[in-house]
Amino acid sequence: MTKCESYDLTAWGKPFEKAVREIPDLPDKAVLVKVTAAGLCHSDLHIKKGFMDLGERGKLTFTQRGAQLPLTLGHEIAGTVEATGASVTDVEPGQSVVVFPWIGCRTCLACDEDRESDCSAMRIIGIHRNGGFATHVVVEDEKFLVDIDGLDPAIVAPYACSGITVYNGLLKAGLTRPDEWLAILGAGGLGLNAIAIAQAMGFKNVIALDIDDAKLESAAQMGADKTLNSTGGEAVA
What is the DSSP letter of 28? Predict the structure, then answer.
């Protein structure tokens, strides 16, 4: 039986503690992934504290969101398939994959339409089930794995969060008309991802807005058609 080493959160706001546990036999559709890269999302910092500060609305605790301790954090995960359940057919041991962590309830309309990220009762890896700050992670179905053969796992892993975030927003926005502009507000990590993914999706006339000229320069290098410092001035092509 495979043993998994992990760094677990055992008390809100406290340091992680090393743990070792045995991985039970895999269900028929499950896949065991050996972790090769795991991103640290800003959300992980909130999870570690145990709450999100909602300002005047108070705090939303992760206990309220269904998280239970001890918990292995980490939802940006890339790795290598190590073992598969008896019914798995589309992935095989040795294959490099990135993990889709936004696992839905699998009973609602969104899940029936393969829109797990729109599910209102998600069972997220790294929040509701053990995540990637470990040597291994169990993924309940092969459909939540994407082949990344030839790509750097350390670069790809964060796209399971940041990439999906902007892709989902762009998908809902829909392609702009020829005389319309797609405005990307903020040219940080998510904004630059949005520019790159928008181009791949076929968006035209992309303008990036920020208050930092250095970030706007990066946006132009990423492919934004125009940039605008929103503190004032004219758009720059």
Answer: T
Q: Which of 98, 79, 97 is nearest to 161 (CA)?
A: 98
* Domains present along the chain, CATH in parentheses: 3-160 (3.90.180.10), 174-229 (3.40.50.720)
Instruction: State yes or no: cis peptide before 15, omega within 30 of 0.
Output: no
What's the pLDDT at 198?
96
Dump the DSSP string for 86-149. TT--S--TT-EEEE------SSSHHHHTT-GGG-TT---BTTTB--SSBSEEEES-GGGEEE-T
Task: Quick: pLDDT tens for 185-236.
Answer: 999 999 999 999 999 999 989 999 999 999 999 999 999 999 999 998 776 6
Q: In angstroms, rounded to a whole number, what is the distance separating the alpha carbons of residues 217 and 157? A: 25
Element (H, E) at 172: helix 162-173
Query: Residue 142 and residue 156: Cα distance in Å, rounded?
Result: 18
